[in-house]
Specification:
The protein is of the alpha+beta class and 123 residues long. The chain has helices at 24-30, 77-80, 84-87, 111-121, and strands at residues 2-4, 9-14, 17-22, 33-37, 44-45, 50-56, 60-64, 69-74, 95-99.
Amino acid sequence: MIRYSKTHEYIRVEGQKGYIGISDYAQKQLGNVVYVDMPDMGDELEKGEDFGAIESVKAASDLIAPVSGEVVEVNVALTENPRLVNVDPMANWIIAVDIADMGDLDDLMNQEEYDIYCLSESH
């Protein structure tokens, strides 16, 4: 299951674990990603609060947690090559969290709702 936030993060849920990254729409808006600031393993995230930042040649944007939970993995490949986000943002997630409350997912959009949201933003 994949859900999206209005700030263009996605979460791919596998059991209690969620892989968080930015959407394809977001990476296209940012352009060439040059840096990804990530939290440390073991950090606690609060839904709606920033957990890092992503920078491109034309903009910087805070990363907002779509759910609360503990960071259980960080994608270290992005420290060496942040452009992987541009290549395939779904495969190149930023962090993985142990989701504290599955109810946090209820406020997020499915693919169809997110596509409509992105269309409304681009007009």
